[in-house]
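Re: that chain you flagged

S.,

Sorry for the slow reply, it's been a week of failed gels. I finally had a moment to sit down with the sequence you sent. For the record, here it is as I used it:
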Amino acid sequence: MSLLAVVQDVCAVVGVTQPTTSIFAAIGSNRTMFEMLALANEMAQRIAYDTRDWQGLQRSVTYSGNGTATDFALPADYKRMLLTSNVRMSTNPQQSMRFISDYDEWLWRRAQNLYDGRGEWIITGGRMLIDPVMSAGVSATYPYLDRNCIALASGGFGDRFMADADTFRLDERLLKLGMTWQWKAHKGSPYAEDMGSFSDALATAMGHDKPMPIIVGRRAMSWSNTNASYPFPSDQTWTWPL
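Prediction finished late last night. Pasting the structure tokens below so you have them in one place:
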């Protein structure tokens, strides 16, 4: 569903004049469409960045060592690390490198020539710093969230809508429902029911994006996407200490 189609549906619900052929065509003199475009960009980014690590926006990058480089540019489409991101060096894939959260501590450790045997990393100034120096043939890899949540009709991806035919890379219905309740909230209209509809749709989309079934039973199961809510059969009583 194109941006134009989404905005037309939102306009029909909130009671403003629908654009017939274009949102952008006279946007400089059309305050309503100007606000709709700003809202579409904000809601698309809010859904893409703030709600979960959507699988469709997950990416990874690998830095290759050359024996001298200690800092590396973040990818051009980098938004943030995933909530469970780790940086792993090719020479020790079983253990993740140590994250140093404070830049002052990073500088102190460098001055003292201290480093964890697994390697250390920090992001500062738009670059990732890695210590110790990776030699040629050694690499470091990590996952991140792609900032480009819009598929551009002109080709490629971006983080803002640029044309009527651009599309949201996630569920367009979420975008439509989100814009509807937020428009009503901005205009002082009752919006609780619309926000509830958006929240329900968002929760459903999040659950389908990466399902995590919980299994409780007598037979042990081991699935990569399963969490045990209780470690023993549910029909058995245990006396502590065992």
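What I noticed first: The helical segments are 3-14, 31-50, 103-111, 172-186, 192-209.

Talk soon,
D.
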